[in-house]
Amino acid sequence: MYQPIIECVPNFSEGRDMKIIKQITDEIEAVEGVRLLDVDPGKATNRTVVTFVGHPDVVIEAAYRAIKKAGELIDMTKHKGEHPRMGATDVCPLIPISGITMEETASYAHKLGKRVGEELNIPVYMYESAATQPERKNLAHIRAGEYEGFAAKIKDGRWKPDYGRAEMNTHSGTTAIGARDFLIAYNINLNTTSERRANSIAFDVREVGRVKTNDKGKPVLDENGDPVRIPGKCKSVKAIGWYIEEYGVAQISMNLTNINDTPLHIAFDACCTSATQRGMRVTGSELVGLVPKSVLTDAGKYFLKQQRRSVGVSERELIHIAVRTLGLDELAPFDPDKKVIEYLLEDKAARPLAHKTLLEFADATAGEGPVPGGGSASAYVGVLGVSLGTMVANLSSHKKGWDDKIDFFSEWAEKGQAIKDKLMMLVDADTSAYNKIIEAIRMPKTNDEEKVLRSQALNAATKGAIEVPLEVMRVSLSSLELIKEMATHGNPNSVSDAGVGAICVRTAVEGAGLNVKINCVGFKDTEYVEQAKAQVYEMLEKAKTMEQEILAIVEKLME
């Protein structure tokens, strides 16, 4: 449903001169499609952490420009600061947010690293999931010796850069580029003012746990003389307890460094369990910074499953459940549109129909313009059809005496939500396809070159106008399996809703089919047209057959 999104969090070795920092961030903001989310300078560390997001292609372009500008403006021979560092751009991690795997993110990191090494003459080391050698996964190992030690370190064959020459760049230093998991800064609120007791919970949950002590309270040492530790409950979690005077409560402050190892909701539950065992209660929690949408939707599903309820509800409802259960609005209002990365990036102008009210959509359709037309209407009728089937699944999951069937209905409801979301995208895609045809028609044709370009654009736009309603047919058709299952096995009291859903879907398939056929008229690629029409007739027949089967089931149950 969404384009791939990655986050980039470069750390620049300048935290005091805001003019330099501004010039670097200006380079980032100059790249179209990139959203600059945060700029966090530190005077003591003399270091600035910048956060921006977008499609992988534009993110690595922005990162390259920022690294280049930092290399020009920051002289590492003069740099002093408390934080370990080795270059003007000390580290530049890429983090998958949505619609992209870690492996794919790592490949983008390598594209960036190669370009920086070759074009900017900055030695580059790849780390974390982009590491080329096991000993380079850990950033601390790469950075050991810092800027001052790299003149000698880089000549050691074991520390030959992954990209760029094995020569010290005295002005810009060295840069580490990698791919890593999203880090979440998360605080748990307690009904106590005791920092010591908050720390006791932090030690229970954090991965490193606490130092084991003997009966006299002294650390137990291992054979090497090192303290023996009792590990905590949550892998990839760092935690400490503190008292926040502003709120008048103690908190467990956590960094979740790998949300695949320990998701937010698991860390929350672990703190709740530990607090209860120690005579305290968790009263809410606080997210610091932004989070990917999946962090909250996964939490919503987790808490719904604990309640033995269907998880096949909308993503907004999942987020609402997560916010209420985690108590994310205890200390301040929590607005998902300002805290969820994907929502911050969402371009509502690119999906105007999806964001209209029902009345606005109807008024737009009934207006004097050619769009939205039958294609968008067909897609939306499909949305209504699959939504009715999904409703029956969710209602059935709550039926008294059907507790053993909750998982069955929940899985079907999830599938229905996914189909609904795809069709909602296609509502606007159909209008967009029409607009591209108009744009192609209006292209100049005063000479042969312009005529060729216009013809190519019109050909591509026409194919798009055919493919979109074909996809509406395919996606709508896939929902009839769900509706048939609900008519057969769902709550009998809602069987008429399943029947209406089937009629809507059949209408969507029929309507989209008409759109395919009219867009094929006059298209010169006859082979393509014949293949498209063959698909149309095949799907029309399937939709007709399945609708009849579903309505027969519905009628029998209503006798």
Can you offer a commentary on this structure?
Helices cover about 50% and strands about 15% of the residues. It is α+β, with helices and mostly antiparallel strands. The protein has three domains: about 5-180, Formiminotransferase-cyclodeaminase, Chain B, domain 1 (2-Layer Sandwich); about 185-345, Alpha-Beta Plaits; about 350-555, Four Helix Bundle (Hemerythrin (Met), subunit A) (Up-down Bundle). Strands 1, 2, 3, 4, 5, 6 and 7 form a seven-stranded mixed β-sheet that branches. The protein has a four-stranded antiparallel β-sheet with strand order 11-12-8-13. A two-stranded antiparallel ribbon has the order 9-10. A hairpin with a 4-residue loop joins β3 and β4 (about 45-55). α2 packs parallel to α3 (about 100-120), α13 packs antiparallel against α16 (about 495-520) and α15 (about 450-490) packs antiparallel against α16 (about 495-520). The radius of gyration is 29 Å and the shape is globular. The mean pLDDT is about 95.
Overview features:
about 550 residues; alpha+beta; Formiminotransferase-cyclodeaminase, Chain B, domain 1; Alpha-Beta Plaits; Four Helix Bundle (Hemerythrin (Met), subunit A); 7-stranded mixed sheet; 4-stranded antiparallel sheet; about 15% strand; globular
